[in-house]
Every structure is written in C-alpha cells, then in structure tokens.
Amino acid sequence: MQRAKYLLFLLSTTSNIFPYIFLASLMLLVISVGMGAYYFGLFSPDALEAEGIGDAFGGGFFDTLWWSMKHVLDPGALAENYGAPKMVLVFAMFNSLMGLAIVSGLIGFIVNSIQNAVEDARNGSATIREVNHILLLGWNRKAVSVLKQLAKFKEKERVVILTSTNTNIVRAEIRQESRNLRGLKILPLRGSIASPSEMARIAIRKAAYVIVLAEGQGLKNTFSDVTTIKTMMLLNSSQNEGRTSNIVAEIVNTENLAIANVASNLSHPIVSSGQVISKTMVQCARYPGYAQVYSKLFSLEDHKIELKNIENSEGILFGDIATRITNATVIGVSWLKIENGRERRVTVLNPEPDFDLAEEDDLILIKQANEDLEINDCPPLERVKTTDTPFNRPNIRKVLILSTNPNVGSIIRELDQHSTEQLEIIVACQDANSVCESLESKYEEIYSSKLKIQPIEFYLDGIWSLEKINPAEFDVIFIVADESESKVDADSRSTLILLLLRNICDKTRGVTFPPVVTEFLDPQTLELVEDSPLTDAVVSTELLSHLMVQVVRKPFMESIYRELLNAGGIEMGFRPAEAYAELGKFVRHLDIVRLAQCSNEVVLGYKFDDGTKPKIIINPKKGEKYKFVAGDKLIVLSQQLYT
Amino acid sequence: MSKILIVEDNEMNRDMLSRRLARKGYEVEIAEDGAAGLEAMKSYRPDIVLMDMGLPIMDGWTATSNAKNDPEISQIPIIALTAHALEADKERAMRAGADDFDTKPVNLANLLEKIEALL
Question: Rounded to the nearest 10 degrees, what angle do helices A18-34 and A2-14 cross at?
Fold first, then answer.
C-alpha cells in the first residue's frame, strides 16, 4: 500500500500526462464495473421498455459497453432508465456518479493546464527566438530608467528582461511608465541571471547589447554583486564561444570592482554605481552647477558623442581641425592600439592643440544627431604661449555630510584625492560616532594627518543639532540618500533636510550659504525641492542609466565618463566668461574656442546665469555669436591643476 | 633611438604622451606607479624618465628620491611632471632629485627641449 502511494506520488509529481492516464484508467474501470448490469437484467423486456436502454447490436457486448460508457460521460442519461430493474438502476446510478467525478476531474485538469500555460507565459518561461535584441539582466530601481533611455533612440528595440524578481512587479513598474517606453517591445522573463541554461533560453549569443544590473537592490540594500560577478563569468565564456555583444555591468560596492573586472577578463566595462555617484557629487561640489551640465551633455536628447575619421588627417593638428569643423565640438582623439596581444581602443580627451593626428585616428565629436560634418578652411591658429592660468581652482577644505549611506566612504576618499591641504569633514547622522568609527576601520588608508573627520549626532526630529552648525564655515554641504530607515524613504528624508537648511538659510540672511549637493533616487523629487538652497541634485538612478546605456551602445564612452569623473587628468569645469570675452558685446564662438585653446582648453558650451534657472548650451556652432553678462560661464574640458 | 620611461597613473595622459613621443621617434615604456617605475628603471634601462608626482602605491617624489639614492639607476635623468603647479611643488621635486620639472598640460616643444638637453 505504501509503495502504491509512493508510486502515485512519484507519478503525479513527475509526469504531466499522469493525471490524464489516471482518469482514463478510472473511467475504464468504472465502465467495466457498469457493464456488470448485463447480468442483472439490462436487456430484459422490462428494461428494454426504458427509453435509454437499447439492443440494436443484439443486446451483447457492444450494447452493454455503449450503455455503461454513456452513463459515465453523460450523467443526464440516468433519467432515461426509468422503468428498468432496480439493480440496473443501481449500476446506472453508480456509473453516473463516478462519471460526474471523472468528468469534473478531467475538466479541472484541463483548466489547470491552460492556467499553468498562461501563468508560465506571464512568468516568462518561454524560450526567446530573437536576434539583435537588448538583454536587461537583473531588475532594480534603475531598470525603468534604463528602459526610458533605450526608448529615446526610437529604434523599436526588443528588450528581453531576465530577473529573479516577480514578473508581475516588473510588469506593474513598466506599466506605470508606459508613456515613456513607446516603441520598445519588452519581454519580462523570470529566472536566474547567473544560470547557464537561462542564458541559452534568452538567446544570449544573438543579443546586440547586454546590460547587467545588480539584482535585488531595494530599500534594504539587498543587492548582490556576487550574482553580477557570476553573470559576468558566464557572459565571458559565452562570448568566447560565439559572436560578441556589447556588454556593460553594474557593481554596487566599489570594493567588488576589482574582482568583477577579473571575472569579465577586462573585456567589458564594469560600472561601479557607488563610485560614479560619489565622484559626481564631489565634482558638483568642486563646480556648483555641474550636475545640470553633466546630465545635459550626456543625455541623448539634442546631440550625440561619436567617433569620426577624417580623410587625409595625417599631420593635421588637433587645434586646427577643432576650429575648422563648424557644426561640431571636437573633444578628443581615439585610435586602436595593440597591447599584450589584444586590440584596445585608446581614448584621449582634450589633447594639446599641437597634437598631430595620424591617418587612422578618429576624432571624438559632440554633434547634432542628424547633421553631416561641415569642415571649412579657416586659417591655422596662432597660438599664444600661456604660462599661468588666471582662474581660482576649486579647493575644498571643510565639508558637512548630512545622513549616511555606503557611498560616504567613497565621497571622503574622492575629496581627499582632490585635496591639496588639510581637509575637515563633519559627518552628521544618526549614530554618528559608530558611523565614523566604521569609516575609519574600513578606509584606514585615507585617514592621514591631512584628513580630519568629526561626528555630529543628527536626527530629523532634533533639528537643534543642525541649527548649532554655522553653514558659512563649510565649502560644501552633501546630503546623501539614506535608505537605512524604514519609516522615511531616502528622498523624503533628503527633502526634509533641505527644508531645514532653507530655514537656517532664511535665519542667516546675508551669510554666504555654501553649495548644497544632494543625491536623489527619484527624479520626480526634484519638483518638490525647487524652493530650497539646493545647488546640485545628483539623481543617481538617471545618472547611472544614462551612463550604462551610452556605454553599452558605444563602449569608448566608458573611458570618457571615467576620465571626466576621476581626480587628476582631464576634467569638465567652468570658466568666467569675462576672461574670454568683453561683457555686453557679441563675440563669435570660434574666437572663444581659439582663445581657450591657448590655455589648452576645449569649449563644450556655455552656462548662462540670469539669476533664475541657468541656461545650458552645449555644442554651439562656431559662427554663432553670444553676449555675456557677469556670472555667465564657459563649460570647458581642461587638465586638472592643483594650484 | 632614445628610450623614455613614462611613469604616470592617468591612462589618458599616459596614452597621449607615449603616442606623441613615439611619433617623434622615441622608444617608450610605461609604468603606472612609483614602485613599478623603479623596477622598470632597473629592467628597461631608459635613457630618461618622465615621472608624474601624484602616483599611487609610491608617489613620484619618493620614487625619484629612491632612484637617485640607488647607485644602479641614479645616473638616469628624471623630469618631474605634475599638475601641482605651485612653486613649492617644483622645489619639492627638485629636492627629491629630479633633474628638471614640467607642469601639465605638457607643452611638447618645451618638453622635447628639456629631454634633449638631458640626453
């Protein structure tokens, strides 16, 4: 009996057709039992008078089988036996009742199977038959933003999403943004992004682009870099076997970046989200207004950054070609280099104006999406030798960090790298002492005599601690997205702190308020903080999705992003317009470009500041004329100098 | 063909300078930090070293000082390159033993003059 039960359990759990075989067997058994009515007067004269009993085939086996089967499949046939012998009625009743049970069971199984098939399709157990599709592996709060970026290309892309997150949640989030995702065909599938069989299911080898997001990033910071690293190993091995796709992956914890690079064999760019956010925040602190320029420059709306080979460029100087191209901004040079047996694309931003091009060099350009390059023959530039720079370089000495999150250590490290003298940092948050102790133990190497960190206990409901602080003492105030509290979400918390700062700002009128750089997770929060002392908002989800989508489509962009954010090397900064042009008079953009070249700078555009909302212009045409007022700035690429 | 060792941590600066010097006919070798630079000085035996000062692991000042105190490589001329443009930074580099000093961004013509003067 036990064995029979086990066999039943085994068959029912391992075989899809077992329920049908079981029901068919049961039906045969019941029909066989029902045929026993033959021996109890099924074809007696009394019985044959009943409407439902007939002997058309001579009252033998086939008539008996037909009668029994009819009662199993059609319980309504019972009533047609009226007048038949009692035992025949008993058999008819038995067959009808068993028939009811069997047919309802059969209907149940069929409905269940259809439901399972529909559910499977919804959960995405289908095998993908796409070519040149985009794969989004993993799901977190950046995913919708990534999809929005992809939709901007208006190329009717097919996006396959594979994630362990419930696809109903994924669908609901996509539905909320459906207006911004027009043109994309999105197929969410449920599965592990670190499983080889799942990779085959989503046609990984036929994908054009693969974007790997950290799985599981939610309110509790439950993201998993380990999954991303395993996925990169899988992707790397699959790429070795077949055609190559452009791949970019996200690592949340900067400490895992090195191992992720090993896993990908340095073949694909890995973006450390913590590092990007902290570096951008520090750049915003160094150049207030930077976030707006950065998002304008790297958004896909007005223009694009691309590589372009110019014919007969051998020996042409970078500075000359940069002024001769009238409708694009030349920001750098790129070429292919063989290094350790592998081909590497070298990208150099803002080379010196006398950098001589080779025939095979590509120019890195910012240009309008659908415009052909216009190159004229303007005379070569007469370069003026400059020995010194007249601008005050940003130098941050005292910083207030409000709230805490895992990126605070990276922000401090980044500030330290830019700092040339004593750097004092106040960390104001809940349990500030333990936060600072943990930072000290984790980032031991950055704690030097040059760096001093002080904790201040700060609660949202204890604003007195903030009021004790004199904001004028600081060079910058950071508010980081703190997801540690379940009662208040990170953006609400940052918004409340900005309100507190506005209150302090109102009370201390006449005192210069330092730049306030805040990290937000949701771009919609920006509308709530318009009337606050906020200088720069880094919307981390948008920033990272911009970056990842750009890098996966154009891998050379990774080195541009990296260079612009890193300490040292080339940076994007602001210069006062009055240093290049007479205020109140029209000046041609070309003339400003030429003047800037004398200081080894590339002019990306202008930031016009009339005291309200700054207006950013990127990639102006060389012939356009501008009239500047005090406060207007040039946006330039230049060598970072520490003076 | 003169051999130049560039010790520089910034990839773009490294790529740009090595490419420009290679096109001028120099043989160029790269090291990414001060410690690697010292090793490369011993193994590669360059005719001249272009040493960035703000380097990871071992900074350029220490690497320059160590090189000048090592009889095996002390005779190799070192030009300090830095984005730290203060006079004090120049003095510090020269005190460490650098034979010359140049600030970024590099003016290639000036740098070539300094290289040729030291070769």
Answer: 130
**A:621-640 residues touching chain B, CB 8 A cutoff:** 638-640
**Given B9, B83, B86, which is nearest A640 (Cβ)?**
B83
Closest chain A residue by Cα to residue B102: A387
Q: CA of B105 to nearest chain A CA: how many angstroms apart?
A: 6
CB-CB under 8 Å, A568 with B9: yes
Q: What is the dihedral sign for C-alpha B68, B73, B76, B81?
A: negative
The CATH-assigned architecture of domain A134-268 is 3-Layer(aba) Sandwich (3.40)
Is residue A577 very low, low, confident or very high in pLDDT (cuts 50, 70, 90)? Answer: very high
The yes-or-no answer to whether A134-268 and A398-474+476-514 have a common fold is: yes
Inform me whether the C-beta atom of residue A353 falls under 8 Å from chain B C-beta atoms: no
Q: Please say whether the beta carbons of B99 and B79 come within 8 A.
A: yes
Domains in chain B: boundaries: 3-118
Q: Which CATH superfamily is domain A398-474+476-514 in?
A: NAD(P)-binding Rossmann-like Domain (3.40.50.720)
Cβ distance B10 to A337 less than 8 Å, yes or no, reads no
Q: Which amino acid is at A422?
A: Q
The residue to which tokens 């076997």 are assigned: A241
Instruction: Kindly state whether B15 is in contact with chain A, defined as any CB-CB distance less than 8 angstroms.
Output: yes
The predicted-structure confidence for A74-130, as pLDDT tens digits, reads as follows 888 888 888 888 899 999 999 999 999 998 998 998 898 888 888 777 666 778 788
Contact with chain A for residue B20, Cβ under 8 A: yes
Q: Helix-strand-coil percent breakdown of chain B, rounded to 5? A: 45, 20, 35
pLDDT at A328 over 90: yes
Shortest distance between the Cα of A398 and any Cα of chain B, in A, equals 20
Contact A420 B19 (CB under 8 A): no
- Interchain contact, A642 vs B83, CB within 8 Å: yes
User: Taking 80 as the threshold, does the pLDDT of residue A396 lie above it?
Assistant: yes
* CATH number of the structural domain B3-118: 3.40.50.2300
Mean pLDDT across chain A: 85
Where do the domains of chain A lie?
A: 2-120, 134-268, 281-389+545-639, 398-474+476-514
Q: Which pair of structure tokens corresponds to residue A203?
A: 């046609």
Q: What would you measure as the largest C-alpha separation in chain A, in angstroms?
A: 126
Q: Which of A42-51, A76-85, A460-469, A606-615 has the lowest mean pLDDT?
A: A460-469
Largest Cα–Cα distance in chain B? Answer: 35
